[in-house]
Sequence to fold (103 residues):
Amino acid sequence: MTSMLIRGGAAVVLAGLAVLAPTAAYADAGVRADAAAVQETRAFTGFAYENSPKEAKREAEKRARQNALISGFLNEQCVLLYANSTRLAPGYYAGDAAISCTR
Fold:
């Protein structure tokens, strides 16, 4: 019976420490977050259907950048992640592109 009480007490103590540990880590991170500016990062995608693979990629990237501009990001704040094109039929291509923007 005594060993069960000791085990239960130890479990309660460990649970209490586990609850307090993330709070202490968050408080420390909060101090560092105040010193550095918080940045927002978002990803945008665009799709297009054109007559050549180059046009499809270019138009898809253009549409992704337009979505970023609508959300308030500048072109200088965005980086192209990928641009792909797929042949759907002779002379007909689909393009998709993704950009990541940080401010």
Remarks:
- The helical segments are 2-35, 53-70.
